[in-house]
Amino acid sequence: MNTVKLQKRIDRALCAVFPRRCRYCGKVIIPERQICEDCETNLPHIPVPVCPLCGHTKTDCTCKQKKHKYKSICAPFYYEDAIVQAIHRLKFENKDFLAEPFAADMAACIRREYADITFDSVTFVPFTKRQMRIREWNPSEALAKALAEHLGLPLEALLVKLYETKTQHTLASNMRTGNVFGVFDIADPNAVAGKTVLLVDDIKTTGATLSECAKMLMLADAKAVYACAFAITKRKTVGKKTADIKSRTP
Ligand SMILES: [Zn+2]
Ligand SMILES: [Zn+2]
Q1: How many A from CA of 77 to the centre of ligand 1?
Q2: CATH class of 43-246
Q3: Which ligand is nearest to the CA of 56?
Q4: pLDDT tens-digit map of 62-96
């Protein structure tokens, strides 16, 4: 029996015990597939061209060129349909192995949108020490770690989160900047100066959290900060679905 046939037999035997699931929606799939047929055709990709300031496709952009402390943002998906389930599986079913394929989606987006940028470092929106004790791992850090490997860049924990915050969804969008104001600090100022940083979060909603993190990095003399998320909440859908996810984050 050749190696390919043997591998297929092993895959089938394993799948009989542990059914293979679509990495996005979680549906059981046949061993030969990686993702389900629905997700193969219906994932909410953000089509090019995209607005660099809000990350939406140009026809969905309503940001009126509102600037943030990061230079631009990109993400492979809108936060809707199977991507809601994908993030739920990653964050709340503790399926940390999903960070690797999700980071591959982000890496493809970064290679396209940030083709001209030379990054020095990949970092992430941190948890407080208490959050880390409760959750044990930070999904944004896991995405950043896998992304750094895909891009061949160093992962550095450049930021620390000092205080707990109210969950962002409980606040009106104009209150969200205030909610995260002053809660982040730099871990080591000497590690930031002069660097072009790729800042990673799992979901971007208003951009207030990423902007506050970028502000701290720029105050520590970063050369530039570019943001990336796995999913972006479409402006018109900011609300209940995001609330469901964020409300479960301690
Ligand atoms: Zn699926
Ligand atoms: Zn825009």
Answers
A1: 14
A2: alpha beta
A3: 2
A4: 899 889 999 999 999 999 999 999 999 999 888 89
